[in-house]
Amino acid sequence: MEMSPLVTALVLGSALLHASWNAIIKSSRDVMLDTALVAAAAGILALPLIAYLPLPARASWPYLGASSAIHIAYFSTLVAAYRLGDLGHAYPLMRGTAPLLVALFGVALLDERPSAFLGLGFVLISTGILSIGLLQKGRAQRDATL
Question: Cys bridge to 81: 20, 90, 98, 115, which one at CB 3.0-4.6 A?
Fold first, then answer.
């Protein structure tokens, strides 16, 4: 399957924006405040879409609440990791553990069974990313990993 140039540009632009805001947050004096400002700015940019899109179905609200709680926990741990460790250490760990957790929760909670090839991919990618946290020395890096 081939991606169109527009889709490719959007994916690459998204990756650039994501890495950029993480670098900005890490280099700031008040990591928590800047994290909140980035999240608020994203919400403000998305606000005009309310006029064009219907509200989510009532049945999805518990999932929206759970997603909000997970994101608050994610941003809180991101702030802690950036305060304690280097960007090159914390960023790959924060980004790399999410697919692993999704796969594990999919197996545990949804009885999903990935193919052997997909499972091997998760293991190899997760091992590579998690090795960043496990192989670096020093208390700051250990605390950032935790």
Answer: 90
Question: Residues 67, 43, 69, CA angle at the centre, nearest 5°?
Answer: 20
Q: What percent of the chain has pLDDT over 70?
A: 95
Tell me the torsion sign for CA atoms 28, 33, 38, 41.
negative
Contact between residue 116 and residue 56 where contact means Cβ atoms under 8 Å apart? no
Tell me the pTM.
0.70
CB atoms within 10 A of CB 9: 11
What would the two tokens of residue 74 be? Answer: 């994610």
Q: Is the pLDDT of residue 44 over 80?
A: yes
Structure tokens, 27: 């280099």
Taking 90 as the threshold, does the pLDDT of residue 61 lie above it? yes
Instruction: Yes or no: say if 144 and 89 are a contact pair by the CB < 8 Å rule.
Output: yes
Q: For CA atoms 63, 64, 65, 70, give the dihedral sign.
A: positive
25, 31 Cβ separation under 8 angstroms = yes
Q: Mean per-residue pLDDT for 88-92? A: 79
Distance, CA of 106 to CA of 15 (rounded, Å)? 25
